[in-house]
Amino acid sequence: IFKFLGAISVDLGKDRIKPYLPTILTPLYRELNSTYAEQDPTLKNLSQEIIELLKKLVGLEAFSLAFSSVQKQANQKRATRKKQRALQTVANPDIAARRKLKRHKNKAETRKRKIEFLRPMYKAKRPRSHALKDLAMVE
To answer: How far apart are CA 27 and CA 8, in angstroms?
Structure first.
């Protein structure tokens, strides 16, 4: 998709690309600022190259205006999501408690995995699962 966005922007040219610039920059900005653990470096490099291409194509002033608007919009979305999460803990304490328990459980599992990785002979205790497949006789 990033290559497609770059090709379309080059094909449209300087004058016709300006109205679509924020729409094109949104996924590129999201990829540049993502903090995922399993992030693909080729995607990040590609998005950086396309941003440089757009900067040369449109000009620094128009690009920076569009990029700052995309940045501002992303920050506003992030802030509203954070505010909604905070309000949900007050409005629905049972859902918040379930989420907190799940987070603590995942944290404990991560800690056990890390211990097993660092010390292979040590096996951390894992909770028993009571799923149907565990009850079946499998050899």
So the answer is: 15
Verdict on whether the full-model pTM lies above 0.70: no
- Of all residues in the chain, the percent with pLDDT exceeding 70 is 87
Query: Residue-wise over 33-70: b if at least 16 C-beta within 10 A, else e?
Result: eeeeeeeeeeeeebbeebbeebeebbeeebbeebbeeb
Going by pLDDT thresholds of 50, 70 and 90, the confidence category of residue 113 is: confident
Q: Does residue 96 contact residue 88 with C-beta atoms inside 8 Å? A: yes
Q: Which amino acid is at 132?
A: L
- 40 DSSP 8-state letter: -
Q: What whole-number distance in Å separates Cα of residue 57 and Cα of residue 21? A: 11
Alpha helix locations (H) across the chain? Answer: 2-17, 21-32, 41-58, 60-91, 93-118, 132-135
* Phi, psi values for residue 97, rounded to 5°: -65, -40
